[in-house]
Amino acid sequence: MITLSDARVKLEFDGTLAVITLARPEKLNALDRAMVAALAEAADKIEHQSELRVAILTGEGGKAFSAGGDIAAWADEPAVAFHRHWIRDGHRAFDALARLRVPLIAVLNGAALGGGLELAATADFRIAESQARIALPETTLGMVPGWSGTQRLVRRFGPQTVRRMSLGAEVFSASEALALGLVDKVVEPGHGMGEARAYAARIAALGPIAVETAKLMINAAEQEETSAAIESLAGGLVARTGDLREGVAAFRQKRPIVFDGA
Fold this sequence. Notes:
By secondary structure, the chain is an alpha/beta fold. Helix 1 packs parallel to helix 3 (79-98) and helix 9 packs antiparallel against helix 10 (226-239). It has helices spanning 33-47, 71-74, 79-98, 115-120, 152-157, 159-166, 174-180, 192-204, 208-221, 226-239, 242-253; strands spanning 9-14, 17-22, 54-59, 64-66, 104-108, 111-113, 125-129, 133-135, 172-173, 185-187. It has eleven helices and ten strands.
């Protein structure tokens, strides 16, 4: 177990696999400030472990993957603080998960509501157990999605599906979510983690640099991190050239540079 700043977010490394678990089942794994910060911390630790090939994100309890942002944590926030911290901190954490260099699999072993669905949308794949329910219920509270529900979810699932959830307050079953492309597979209760681990093993057997690069290019196509993707790929290409080796050697040896374009 990797120690994070909040014990209600667990992080484990198992060979090439990382597992993030929301561990607040008594509150349906609803997120507060400290848990959001710990998710960002978990993403950072995964990003810097070179042996990792894939990650899984899930919740404890079987009733909910995550019920979203804990209302008690944000309901009394002043408007400015809500904008500056609750919303923006959530975006930073969720962006870090969406932009992990390794593929991320979300196991929806129960309800994914509001911020919980926004969290699930950061994953590359979503495996839902059949008891899962999926919704963006913010408008029923006089609120709007704040952690990219109207942005990343539209890019990944299409505007009409998001309209149905946000403007129409529709709640989808796991099978309906599968038909709409909100999830990639539906399994029986209790089988989500096993299915995710099997798929993670499939990913881990592939070429790691190829998978990482393919994910980066797909993210760029989705406008997830276009600028960073361009510079990352370009930098990686140049780093493998003789020109860079010559430039560094000439700098260290304090001699004129002789580039050969190879």
